[in-house]
Fold each of these.
Amino acid sequence: MKKDYAVELLETKQFAALKNELNEMNPTDIAVLLGEMYEADDLGDRELTLLYRVLPKELAAEAFTYMDSEQQVVLINAFSDNELRAVIDELYLDDTVDIIEEMPANVVSRILQNTDSETRKQINELLDYPKDSAGSVMTTEFVYLHKEITVQDAFSKIRRVGYVKETIYTCYVTENRKLVGTVSLLDMIVSDPETRIEEIMDTNVISVSTHDDREAAANTLSKYDLAAIPVVDAEARIVGIVTFDDAIDVLEEEASEDMAVMAAISPSDKPYLKTSVYQIYKARIPWLLLLVISATFTSMVLELFEKELAAVTALVVFIPMLMGTGGNSGSQSSVTVIRGLSIDEISFSDIFKVIWKEFRVAFLCAVTIAAVLFLKILYFDRQGLNIALVVSGTLFVVVVVAKFVGCTLPMLAKKIGADPAVMASPFITTIIDVIALLVYFVFAKAVLNI
Amino acid sequence: MKKDYAVELLETKQFAALKNELNEMNPTDIAVLLGEMYEADDLGDRELTLLYRVLPKELAAEAFTYMDSEQQVVLINAFSDNELRAVIDELYLDDTVDIIEEMPANVVSRILQNTDSETRKQINELLDYPKDSAGSVMTTEFVYLHKEITVQDAFSKIRRVGYVKETIYTCYVTENRKLVGTVSLLDMIVSDPETRIEEIMDTNVISVSTHDDREAAANTLSKYDLAAIPVVDAEARIVGIVTFDDAIDVLEEEASEDMAVMAAISPSDKPYLKTSVYQIYKARIPWLLLLVISATFTSMVLELFEKELAAVTALVVFIPMLMGTGGNSGSQSSVTVIRGLSIDEISFSDIFKVIWKEFRVAFLCAVTIAAVLFLKILYFDRQGLNIALVVSGTLFVVVVVAKFVGCTLPMLAKKIGADPAVMASPFITTIIDVIALLVYFVFAKAVLNI
């Protein structure tokens, strides 16, 4: 249903029609629609609650999970304890936890008051897992079966727990809570009802531990094309699963984070259009200031050689080009390596392979650019042979150094547990700028004997 | 099984043990292991074929799909027609197509000769879809049901086709080949065998068209948390589905591509460590050359103002800082917008929202940095008031312009169907560099009345 039509139905008080339209919709779209209407002030808190209440219970709860925390707070405050309990019962535990993490304290305590002690315990456990750990993104709603039971019994258990999501298409076989195998729903469907689970289970189980990085969990799921990957605790007992939809979100967030950090922005998982100007400012300004300050080093180098500059002002002309090309050669290498690290294509043990490969690439690039530049300076810029030698010689060194620095720093960062992406552009660029200028003037002094 | 142990078993000719070890392994790991052994020359073509032949048919076929094309070619060449046919029968159509796309022509024709005409027709159809279209990543193996049949009949159909992957957990309900609904395996399991499919099907179908961008398909799948998204042709007939595992690969590849392009590298979907030095060189050098050439503009500006530079050499000192900060302010905006566009958080229609938001952010950033810089120049660099005014004034303008250019260009690129990522660093940086220098010297002339 288009927003305008919904607004029209609302203003003309055709609630029955509105209700039918909404019932036809997908929970995601309902959340988006209500969100847009709310932000455009077509909906007040009262109307939002009213529309929400006309939705069938299950659809309502699902739509709820897709809403912005802003609208969720409005609804929760409007809910009676019974309504709140009804919604929470419909929610998946991990969704409840995601919601709680966004909520103001008073709302959180109200949510917790309205969950039974067992759920509350599980919620608190989930909240306890370190941010960005596999435990923090897993759901505790999965089907586990004992290996002795029959397919028939397995089905009746599945029907009993009746989770309504992909989470049940793989069942996890346990032996005193330890994960010993997996069995897909399909295998059960195609086997005789009397078959015992252990006969059809796959004992070759891929799993991650609760404290593994959530990105590692998502990468593993993707590597083995799993719909869900089991998460086990220190005693190899299965405590949850990470499903493909959460894995996709993790991979998307991590990629966005890397890009942000590479561009010198503190990452945020809030959509751009929903982030306030001040928040964006706060995420960007520290890095810009850092750059202004770090640029002091380049200034120092330039002051150091003010005499030479005054003597041969022609030198100035090439400074932007030297620094620009150096910076880009560096980020070509760093970005390649950073991405390789985050999708597990490269690990620290490859460091020498990488350096050797980058060195050869750097050499080829450096020769090419230096040659082109040399000719350009001689015949296009009509400068003397000495200048041409100094500039293209400098560029050669700068490109080689830049690619070395660019590929090495991210790997070292990874090794010491820092975020490799931080090593992209800004930092590396500053380092390279300084080196470029130093090399440049040392060469200049030597060749032009100033 | 560890590589060394496998090599040892191989060298000591303990094939039985080797076979058992392999049978215990996951197809992905088998492919990785054999690949490593082959590249380390622990395996010749003969041994590779030999080891492959000891694997059970189904496991072998699955492992085959995860191998590098290099080893796939070796095996295909070693296969008898019967073996080849056996493998192809086990493969999913989309996997077969992926393999074919990597193969030399002679191998391709051999593969096609060994597929029945129906399969060959489907393969050719899949190969016809434009690169990066939803059609090119979909699989044509999905279960479709007529809405009149009962759950019971549905199950027997599922058992009959017996696909061994997630592809069957959602079945697609068709009415003379048009897609009219979906029904999840779970819904079928929990309903009475006599229920008719149309009673339990969900008529609210999310689908994409064969020619939609593969990234759009993956984003939609992720937005609605679907395990698979149906792909329909111009007549709304379902022709295939994109499953979550392929969607994940698409999203990962697209993110890697964006990062590469942002860093001025021509993207490649080959893993870094498997890409030859020359290929990497080819992907990077054109952009570096482009930068060297485009830097000509900055040089021109500098030559234009050589007189002023000679007069006040102190001006030179701040050039790197001005250009560096300008470049980064710009890429902060461009990278944010580019990412927003590719994960569908931002669309072209938001352009004015975005510009207005970036303008306010830019103003805040510019004021802050200019102020800090002003004081730094006065009290740290001990320069005169005029210099401080010129430099911080320039920086203010540069930051505002940079953020404007940075957020606008990618959106325009998107509008004209170009890749927004191309608008990141290199291009924008050059533009901003030139503007920065122009503003700088105009200010300088005015204030320092040179």
Amino acid sequence: MKKIAIIGTGTVGQTFASKFISLGYEVMIGTRDVSEKLASTAKDGYGGPPFSEWHAQYKDVKLGNFAEAAAFGEIVLNATQGANSINALKLAEAKNLNGKIIIDVANPLDFSKGMPPCLMPELSNTNSLGEEIQRVFPDAKVVKALNTMWCGIMVNPNMIGGGDHTAFVCGNDADAKTRVKSLMNEFGWKNGNILDLGDISSARGTEAVLPVWVRIWGARQNGAFNFKIVG
Amino acid sequence: MKKIAIIGTGTVGQTFASKFISLGYEVMIGTRDVSEKLASTAKDGYGGPPFSEWHAQYKDVKLGNFAEAAAFGEIVLNATQGANSINALKLAEAKNLNGKIIIDVANPLDFSKGMPPCLMPELSNTNSLGEEIQRVFPDAKVVKALNTMWCGIMVNPNMIGGGDHTAFVCGNDADAKTRVKSLMNEFGWKNGNILDLGDISSARGTEAVLPVWVRIWGARQNGAFNFKIVG
């Protein structure tokens, strides 16, 4: 399977797209409206260059609307902001997602109550974004993975600590988790550093890492870190 | 300052009490009703022996009601279950807490919705137990610390990984945090492994570690682990 759909055009989506291209995959990024996205000269939400500038350097990355990208991908990666994920995936359409692995790297951050963000109340504590996606798309295989760190480390664990730190995976389908772990191996993750936490309800745990992540980021003023389980 | 009050008679309180005794401190454990607690033959909530059996081995540990213990202690450690912490500290009385450091190692776990526990909605996400204690006792100096790991490791970090893993502290009073770090040094924590996350609102982050902690515990079936920040 060498065709990847990435839902979301932000830094996370760009990071995965360029990594998958470097690994020899075909990639299509899905966005609401391709021509509008390419025409926009607005900086991204974090002050980065507009999407068109990034894409000019990665012309091998195909672009489509959400449904076109999902139809193209053999695996679909959700790299939208958590507050928008369900709507974006609905626009991608269940018929284009059914039977496929959805790798969910997003977090249900709520920026409406000031910084640092909290979690969206309806998607935390007794629920999670990963579970909600699985509930809305019961015929897809949702694997929550890699959402507990900055995206640069998601696709390049060897950037810090010799790659010796921990990534979590959660999901209801064992084969889907095995496939995602294999992709993570291609990024440089060693199996001994990938911890399977069980079914998709474990996303309640991994998404709850974000409130401490943002505090650690605040204390260090540097997001290039990850958690290692010692013991 | 060599007098420590420990509020709570469970495994966490016992663990701190015996550690402080071994370090030469005077310790009083506070409980609602001393004679009732000593008369009880019920196992503790995790199936451990009744409190009286533990205390028979640690007769140097003084016992008092919540207010007597708080009045005795120069530093007060909250080792109650998070759901009971505010009530227990109210019984300890503000006049016995004012001006003192309250080390809060508790977590606002909600066991009412099944296992694994979630967090108490009113004490999580946009609030925390640490903040709530500081709000109810504005003249105490609350330091949230050590709540992200099993109690055996709190007082003995060298039990795993050569002690090279991370403990967080949060609180509004810099001197109080310095004092708590010094106590942690006595337990074996190296300063390079203690990360100050800022004011007491950062307890929203460290208490949110519990939802992933319980999932990791479930996957490993072993609580003797901790998180290390790598990067």
